[in-house]
Amino acid sequence: MRVEARPEGLHLPDLDLFLDPAARVTRAVLSHGHADHARALAGTVHATPETVAIARLRLGDTSYVPHAYGEPFELTAPSGTVARLTLLPSGHVLGSAMVLVEHRDERLLYTGDVKLHRSRTCAPAEVAAADVLVTEATFGLPVFRFPPVVDLEARIVDEARTALDSGEIPVFLGYALGKGPEIARILQDADIPVMLHGAVHRMVEVYRSFGVGDRDATAYERGKVDGYALIVPPSARTHPMLRAIRQKRVIAVTGWALLDASYDRYGADVLIPLSDHADWDELHELVARTGARRVLTTHGFAEPLAHALSAQGHDASALHLLHGDEE
Ligand SMILES: [Zn+2]
Fold it and tell me: Is residue 324 domain-resident?
């Protein structure tokens, strides 16, 4: 199956189908709602119901066709042949999907963003067998090996309790889609009250509308944050809202926490490497589980990962796509 990196995005020319396009095209599949994947709409957009809801909020309206995980659907290629597509959980954030494309006895799996370790707020990844794998490589360097999730969750709870016990406000930095709701869930499960920045609160409401997260969380109110753990997107760290809080401990929760430079990048007192992406070992496990011989890498450290996979006997190369920097 031919795979091309075009200015409009990743393209499967045999099907005239774009995956996560960067510009408006005729038809596309969106893997998930992050701004570096859900970048532009298409005339027809295929996605999970959760991603449709998020794309509607962030990108607006078009002809959406929702597909539940694991329910195949058909697309007719320009040649008149029919391809079978299936969206499978990628374990990244609410609604995130890998896209399995079966056409003329060949199977291609596009991961979008993926992780294999568990999460409390999204379905675990379901890896399918494929002949061709197109995988993200955000953390495609051997330096990125994350500690066990259970240890990182315990650190999140400990940091919140320590800050609250010493009269500080624990301020967690996490994206509205994915990390923010996940941190909220970890803290709420430990009976720590949470207050959410507006963007995180709106997304938590989307999660709740899909039955994820059973407890109400409080939206941020100026002057009422004492006794709460506050969760804000990383972009809000320089906002006056945070400057007004004098006694605070800023905790960045991100895979980039493994780099010391992240203290400055996030303006954080504490870094915790809980990530929504696969680390180096998980990327290799993913490739092994698909059984794919041909591997195309994209997003992040695509070249080093492709190089390592080539050395192991794969037909691997990096695809160069234009993309942004949201986890
Ligand atoms: Zn993502």
Answer: no
The domain of 153 spans: 149-272
Are residues 189 and 166 part of one domain? Answer: yes
Span from the CA of 326 to the centroid of ligand 1 (angstroms):
6
Note whether 55 and 170 are same-domain residues. no
pLDDT truncated to tens, each residue of the chain (327 aa)? 999 999 999 999 999 999 999 999 999 999 999 988 888 888 999 999 999 999 999 999 999 999 999 999 999 999 999 999 999 999 999 999 999 999 999 999 999 999 999 999 999 999 999 999 999 999 999 999 999 999 999 999 999 999 999 999 999 999 999 999 999 999 999 999 999 999 999 999 999 999 998 777 899 998 899 999 999 999 998 888 888 898 999 999 999 999 988 888 888 999 999 999 999 999 999 999 999 999 999 999 999 999 999 999 999 999 987 655 444
CA of 215 to the centre of ligand 1 (A): 25
Distance (Å) from CA 267 to ligand 1 centroid = 22
To the nearest 10 degrees (0 to 180), the angle between helices 302-311 and 280-290 is 50
Half-sphere exposure of 72 (CA within 13 A, CB side): 10
Does one domain contain both 111 and 239? no
Q: 112 and 54 in one domain?
A: yes
Which residues have their alpha-adjacent CB atom under 5 A from ion ligand 1?
Answer: 34, 113
78 alpha carbon – ligand 1 mean position (Å): 30
Taking the complete model, does pTM exceed 0.85, yes or no? yes
**How is residue 290 written in tokens?**
């698909």
Tokens of 205: 């409401």
- Domain count along the chain: 2
- Looking up residue 115, the CATH number of its domain turns out to be 3.60.15.10
DSSP reduced 3-state for 248: strand
What is the distance between the alpha carbons of residues 315 and 126, in angstroms, rounded to a whole number?
23
Sign of the CA dihedral with 130 first, then 44, 211, and 54 last: positive
Between the CA of 327 and the centroid of ligand 1 the distance, in Å, is 5
- DSSP-derived secondary structure letter, 127: P
